[in-house]
Specification:
The radius of gyration is 20 Å and the shape is globular. It has helices at 17-32, 52-57, 74-92, 104-115, 135-146, 155-163, 177-189, 194-197, 212-215, 218-232, 246-251, 268-276, 286-295, 309-313, 325-334, 339-342, 352-365, and strands at 10-14, 37-41, 65-66, 96-100, 119-123, 149-152, 171-173, 204-208, 236-240, 260-263, 280-283, 299-302, 317-320. By secondary structure, the protein is of the alpha/beta class. Helix 3 (74-92) crosses helix 4 (104-115). The longest helix has 19 residues, at 74-92. The chain folds into two domains: 10-175 and 351-365, Rossmann fold (3-Layer(aba) Sandwich); 187-342, Glycogen Phosphorylase B (Rossmann fold, 3-Layer(aba) Sandwich). Helix 13 links the parallel strand 11 and strand 12.
């Protein structure tokens, strides 16, 4: 696709917590290279601890545009994103629109850019769970089908894109920019006092839950709460509870147990400090699966599948259904991953942002 001219070189579209950690290294690398860029924050995550604090901690520049889309059903939120992004992308007319991950903001920006004749690049392209019941899987497939440049974090993503017809010259294996952020910030989050402030014991597990398939379905949400209570009989749990599902999980009794601490959402540094010191992590988040893989923390993912296949083959992550959660946690703790054996996945080395920056620079120059 021929890039538009007249606007900034690059527009970054972000909207939710995982986007910020992925975008920060890319924004920094392009800034160092003198690339003109604008940052568009859709406001998909509007909670202060899920948005503003990340900009402060990750040294992201103030958004040039804040759209304030907020929450809603999949259709309502996506429609609001499409409407808001159409105006702002038409106004800025970037040469390249960069989108990150698999949230609704990602897919909406790719769709608007394509319809407007603007080129787009997808950071974290090619990941597949092969489960179309997940809204995120739909977002991944649509975004990759429309993208002009695919930046991939793992080798299996290259094969997935090839099977779907992406041209080989559009695919670039660059590593994982989320891990750039983790490695850059590690000295700042290790040893923070958040665990002491929360009064946590030496052994505890961090829990994050937000996927619609887990928190929106009443039966599955009930099974998960019951399983967490069983886990909490042997291991203290701390749960920074995402706004999605908060009311439902609380109503099911999640906060009724002394060995379960439910907190407000945490900023990046405090959350990663808890993860780094945890005995285990229970999650349904894709990014947390990756972060625990690099930190060497046993991760138990409450899902039937994952798009982060490398975390499974690496031995740091295992999948489980709710009814087997307590057994999976016990098994993961008894057989913790060994980073001395595995090391991080290929190119998860802190250099993804600069690699992406160099490719974008060449693409713009061309």
């Amino acid at each position: 696709m021929k890039p538009a001219r007249g606007g900034p070189d690059v527009a970054h579209v972000v909207g939710a917590r995982p986007n910020f950690m992925k975008a920060a290294p890319v924004v920094a690398a392009l800034g160092t290279a003198g690339i003109e860029q604008v940052l568009i924050h859709t406001g998909q995550h509007y909670d202060e601890a899920l948005s503003r604090v990340f900009f402060d901690e990750l040294a992201l520049p103030e958004p040039d545009r804040y759209l304030g889309v907020g929450s809603g059903t999949q259709a309502v939120q996506t429609a609001a994103l499409l409407t808001a992004l159409e105006g702002v992308l038409a106004d800025t007319a970037p040469t390249l629109t960069l989108v990150y991950g698999d949230v609704n903001s990602t897919m909406a920006a790719a769709l608007v850019a394509s319809k407007a004749g603007l080129a787009s690049g997808h950071v974290e392209a090619g990941l597949r769970s092969f489960d179309r019941s997940m809204p995120e899987e739909i977002n991944r497939v649509v975004t990759d089908a429309l993208a002009d440049i695919h930046f991939v974090t793992t080798t299996d993503a290259i094969a997935n894109l090839a099977k779907e017809g992406a041209s080989a010259d559009s695919i670039h294996f660059v590593g994982n920019p989320m891990i750039d952020t983790l490695l850059l910030m590690r000295d700042r989050f290790v040893g923070r006092p958040i665990g002491r402030e929360l009064g946590l014991p030496e052994r505890y597990a961090v829990v994050t839950l937000h996927r619609p398939g887990n928190v929106d379905d009443p039966q599955r949400a009930t099974e998960i709460v019951n399983s967490l209570v069983r886990v909490a009989n042997d291991l203290h749990l701390v749960i920074p509870l995402h706004p999605r599902g908060r009311a439902k999980l609380t109503a099911l009794g999640l906060t009724d147990w002394s060995s379960i601490d439910v907190t407000e959402p945490l900023g990046y540094l405090d959350f990663m400090s808890l993860v780094a010191d945890a005995t285990a992590v229970i999650t349904d988040s894709g990014g947390v699966q990756e972060e625990t893989t690099v930190l060497g923390i046993p991760c138990i993912t409450v899902r039937p599948n994952t798009e982060r296949a490398v975390t499974i083959t690496h031995g740091t992550n295992r999948l489980t259904e709710p009814e087997d959660l307590d057994k999976a946690v016990a098994a993961a703790i008894s057989e913790p991953p060994s980073q001395t054996t595995h090391g991080p996945p290929p190119l998860w080395d802190g250099g993804a942002g600069p690699r992406i920056g160099r490719i974008v620079q060449r693409w713009i120059d061309r």
